[in-house]
Amino acid sequence: MILETPENPNLNNSLIRFSDRGFGLFVYALFTVCGAAILWQGRSAGLFPAPLPGTDQLSMIEAAFGLASGEPLPAGYLYSPAYTGFLAAAKLLTGGNLVAMRMVQCLVAGWIPVVVFHLGIRLRFGRTAARVGALLCCFYGPLLLISLDFLRAAPLALCFAGFLLALLRAAGRRSPRWFLATGVLAGLCILGRENFIPVIALPALMLFSGGIRRHLFRRRPAEPGRRTLRMAAALATGLVLTIAPIVVVNLVRFGSPAIVPGHTGNVVGAYYGPEAEANRLPDPGAILRRIPEELGNFLSSYEIPNSLSFYAHAELIDFLNVAAVPFHLLLALAAIGFWRFRRNPGARLTLLLIAGYALSMSLFTFFYRFRIPAVPLVAAMAGAGVAALGDWIRLRKFRTLAAALLGGALFVAATSRNPDRLRPESERRSVVYLMIRLGRYPAAEDGVERLRRDRIPSADLAEQLIRALQQEGYHPYAAELFRRWFGSVPDGGQAK
């Protein structure tokens, strides 16, 4: 690499830093521009209005607007107070314009690929791997889409990736400042979703017990002393300063020390199901028996809809089909990356956090938005996987390359699911109806054909499309569709 010449190390380091800053700005701009394109096309298709009644988004928006006006959160509020506070700040910044608020969140989420890039460097995967990982974030459609919606997944993904980056810096530099930052980011993760408590506690405890240095970094643990105590105090200070205000408010106002008082009984349970609705504390045995199924949902290609359907939006927003990196492909590349860097202590720590998060979320129903917080870490490992494939080609390690590709292909095949077979019929019909209204007749025709292929009632939609084509003057083509779908053409060759 040209920048790593020994003749002028100071100039070399300056050029590397300049190059890194330039790439960071590039991926930030790329992510936000992609988000703006999705927002623009979605608005043109009639999407991204005010959140629909009965959705989590609407509840959080209403609470955030009240909070911005000085009203306290309502009793039994079921959602993250930290994210609601973020929405309240966005409301004050934009004057309550919902489109502008969506773009503000996208601008915040734009830091995700930047953090992933620096993660790849800090993990010692190499700059090529770091850049690929950042670009994969920019072309992962569900992350782009959810960064525009009033859901906490995208900001939480940023906090989780930032936590790992700060933890690595803190472990390397043993600086109280970085331990303080680690504590703050850990607190934000917990305020975003309570299942992060065990996820982030494990590496922190290992760090101060010497476990990370002994088992991950293969170093002797530091002797306990004042410096160690200062670092532990800094991490604890950051954590307490972030969480304590919320806990105190909930204790005083609601009589509950929980982070989300409305979900006190569900912190370690399942949010859905009749048992949860009845007693808020479902059968632990039933939860444990469901874990393999939910882990399978985490690994699969299917983006399980909840509050926001990725597939419905992808049919109406063309750009989401360009940003079409599926999640199980990211996982396959991440597995290759881990195998290549399996002796890398940072790779082990990253895998630990991904596995811990997946296991903690397997206690709940795995909707696709619940996978989003793990995406930056998976993308960083996937970038290492792509770089590993390139290295094996360059070094002519064709056996290793073939084994990796075969293993990845088998995993992708085993975890692939046909979304059309799993999506609700009502959703698919609604999308076709909207396409007809928008005048996107070729897409609507394709939608009707797929509904017919899957034996979903579609005669009414077919008739609406034919009438719309007639009104636009496409009489011969309308007649052709009538003949294809209904078997004959009445009235001398023109469809009614």
Q: Can you offer a commentary on this structure?
A:
By secondary structure, this protein is mostly helical. The protein has 2 domains: 2-52 and 110-262 and 284-414, no CATH class; 424-486, no CATH class. Helices cover 71% and strands 0% of the residues. The chain is built from 26 helices and no strands. It has helices at 9-44, 56-68, 81-94, 98-109, 111-122, 127-138, 141-146, 153-173, 176-192, 196-209, 211-216, 226-254, 274-279, 284-299, 310-316, 319-322, 327-340, 345-361, 368-371, 375-394, 398-415, 419-422, 425-438, 441-453, 459-471, 475-486.
Short description:
This protein is an all-alpha fold and 496 residues long. Helices cover 71% and strands 0% of the residues. The longest helix is centred in the N-terminal third of the chain and has 36 residues, at 9-44.
> What pattern of helices and strands is seen along the backbone?
HHHHHHHHHHHHHHHHHHHHHHHHHH
Taken as a percent bin, the fraction of beta residues is under 5%
Number of strands: 0
Rg result: 25 Å
The chain-level mean pLDDT equals 83
Uncertain spans: 1-7, 264-279, 492-496
Helix content, binned percent: over 70%
- Shape descriptor reads globular
**Count of helical stretches:** 26
Counting structural domains, the number is 2
In whole angstroms, the N-to-C terminal distance is: 69 Å
Derived from helix and strand composition plus strand pairing, the structural class reads mainly alpha
Largest sheet: none
